[in-house]
Structures are given as structure tokens and as C-alpha cells.
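TASK: fixed-backbone design
INPUT:
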């Protein structure tokens, strides 16, 4: 909130979670890390600058692999994404744009500062996604991993996990002008907004126009609308944050973070895929729904040794059809057989 006389202090839990995330993303963690001020003037940042990590982030040079699947693909394929850096920074306020209405009058923007100043962890990837499907599978898989390790609740609509996407079309190996998409608060919106932006830029380029370097927001229908222009290269006037000392990463901090990651074991989607035999699509679909996951785990505990994952999927489809016909809730919440409780 930029209250006069208030100085920033480093949140140790944020550092601990960042080290755990660095382990999960196979990042290199340097011995020292530094905080910087990023200067810009926008309503959600009343101080006029953001505390972030520009040159010396807490981790860098990672890699994250995941399965890409879709009903339009003949088969799933494995993709690895390069993590450029993982940085701690200060959160901004939440901007709420209200359309015009008879009750509220002309359109207006409101700022919620409840989260302003809180620590967040930002993951920066290389520009290696080629389709919207790859982008959403990355987000889905990463979200499940973060939830499993208690790094966040993964609720996109509540802002616990936020996604920005830079979209550009390249020709003959040359990078095009990129646009940044914000305000994507669901997996569906991410998919729709990226595809919309690809189509929008393609139409501009094929008609002989020029794509503007700008920030755009996704509306409720997944369409992108211009927020603010970035035609000129922004000079954020980065400087070392004078009120936070150099962060020296202790070996015992890393050891504790590493041990906690190992203790948690495999996330549910990996266990379903690697140990039980579900395909990548089914494993992610089940893991994303806590009630369905609980039901499947009960089925797996109760099943005979020769029952396969495909058998369980078949039974699930049949049971869903039967329960929907009888207006019962699926998956079931109560069981008559005490052995599968």
C-alpha cells in the first residue's frame, strides 16, 4: 500500500516454498539472490515500483516435462519446457473492471489492495509452446503438482494461481511481435484466449497489417481486448532494492526443501499413470476432481489383481450412466459395502 514509514521484510515461508518449487522444476539454485525495484506507474501498484528479482533470481535454468493430449491428436506426446527463471516478487492489487449499467453508471475500474505487498513466486518459461493445447496441458500438470506439494491451492478463479501468456506468430524462423494476455482465470479461458489471439494476429498479418506490441485482457467469452499499449520499449529503471539485503541461500534450507519434496512422493496423476496404468488424459482428468479421485482410489484398493485400468474406466462410464438415469450424484459419496469405505 506504500504507507509512509513501512519497510519491506522477507517472508521466510516464501523462500522455503520457492526452494521446493525449484527442486520440482529441476532448477539451479545459486548461493546468493538479490531483490530489485521495477519502476512503473499503474493504479494497482501505489508505491510506483514493484519489488522483484531481475538479474539474480532465486532459481534459474530448469526444465519441466508433461504429456500433451487432445481428442484431435492421434496419440499423446511428451513435451519438455525450459524454465528460464523462478523469482520472488511483490504482488500488486487486483483490478476489477466494471462495465456500464443503469445501476452503476458509466464503466469504471476498482482496485482491491488486500493482496498488495504479499509475496508471490513467478515462473518464467522460454517461448517454446506451439499450440494452445500445449499451454493448457502445461498449466494443468503444473497446477496438480503444486497442489500435491502444498505450494498453492491452485484455484485460478480466486487468483491463487495466475497465468499470463505471450503470443506471437513467427514466419521462416523470425519471431513476430508479441502481445501479452492477462486476466485468464480458468483453463478454458486460457485455451480460448490463446486460440483467439492466434486467429486475430493471423488475420492482421495476412491482410498486410502490423501486430501491435500491447497488453490485452481476456473477457468472459475468451476474446482478447486491448488494455494498455506497449509500442515503445518500457524502461523500468531497475535498481537494487535498498531495504532488503542480499539473500544467501543456506545449505540447510535447501536440504529441508529437498527432503519435503521427496517425502510427498508422486502426485496422484503420476501414480495413476505410472503405477496403475491409466493413460495421461484419464490420469489428469481423475486427479483434477477430488471426489472422483477418492472414488477411484477406493475402487483400486478393492479391485482384484487382474483388473486393469481400462476395466476401471469402463466400469466408471457404466456407473455414471446408471446413476445419471436414476438422478443420483456421480461419483457416489456413500457406499453400502464397508470394505470400500
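OUTPUT:
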Amino acid at each position: 500500500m506504500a504507507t509512509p514509514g513501512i519497510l519491506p521484510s522477507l517472508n521466510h515461508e516464501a523462500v522455503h516454498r520457492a526452494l521446493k518449487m525449484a527442486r520440482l522444476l529441476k532448477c539451479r539454485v545459486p548461493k546468493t539472490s538479490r531483490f530489485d525495484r521495477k519502476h512503473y506507474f499503474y493504479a494497482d501498484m501505489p508505491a510506483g515500483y514493484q519489488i522483484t528479482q531481475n538479474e539474480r533470481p532465486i532459481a534459474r535454468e530448469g526444465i519441466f516435462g508433461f504429456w500433451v493430449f487432445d481428442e484431435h491428436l492421434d496419440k499423446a506426446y511428451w513435451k519438455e519446457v525450459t524454465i528460464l527463471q523462478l523469482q520472488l516478487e511483490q504482488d500488486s492489487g487486483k483490478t476489477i473492471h466494471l462495465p456500464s449499467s443503469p445501476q452503476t453508471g458509466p464503466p469504471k475500474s476498482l482496485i482491491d489492495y488486500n493482496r498488495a505487498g504479499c509475496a508471490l513466486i513467478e515462473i518464467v518459461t522460454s517461448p517454446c509452446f506451439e499450440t494452445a493445447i500445449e499451454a493448457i496441458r502445461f498449466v494443468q500438470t503444473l497446477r496438480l503438482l503444486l497442489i500435491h506439494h502444498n505450494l498453492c491451492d491452485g484455484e485460478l478463479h480466486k487468483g491463487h494461481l495466475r497465468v499470463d501468456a505471450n503470443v506471437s506468430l513467427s514466419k521462416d524462423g523470425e519471431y513476430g511481435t508479441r502481445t501479452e494476455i492477462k486476466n485468464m482465470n480458468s483453463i478454458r479461458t486460457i485455451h480460448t484466449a490463446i486460440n483467439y489471439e492466434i486467429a486475430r494476429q493471423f488475420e492482421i498479418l495476412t491482410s498486410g497489417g502490423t501486430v501491435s506490441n500491447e497488453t490485452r485482457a481476456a473477457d468472459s467469452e475468451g476474446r482478447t481486448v486491448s488494455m494498455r499499449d506497449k509500442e515503445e520499449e518500457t524502461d523500468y529503471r531497475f535498481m537494487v532494492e535498498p531495504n532488503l539485503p542480499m539473500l544467501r541461500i543456506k545449505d540447510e534450507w535447501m536440504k529441508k526443501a529437498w527432503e519435503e519434496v521427496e517425502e510427498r512422493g508422486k502426485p496422484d496423476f503420476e501414480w495413476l499413470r505410472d503405477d496403475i496404468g491409466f493413460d495421461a488424459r484419464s490420469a489428469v482428468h481423475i486427479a483434477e476432481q477430488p471426489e472422483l479421485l477418492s472414488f477411484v482410489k477406493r475402487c483400486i484398493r478393492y479391485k482384484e489383481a487382474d483388473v486393469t485400468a481400462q476395466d476401471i474406466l469402463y466400469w466408471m462410464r457404466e456407473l455414471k450412466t446408471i446413476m445419471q438415469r436414476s438422478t443420483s450424484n456421480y461419483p457416489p459419496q456413500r457406499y453400502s459395502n464397508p470394505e470400500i469405505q
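COMMENT: Residues 12-252 form one domain.
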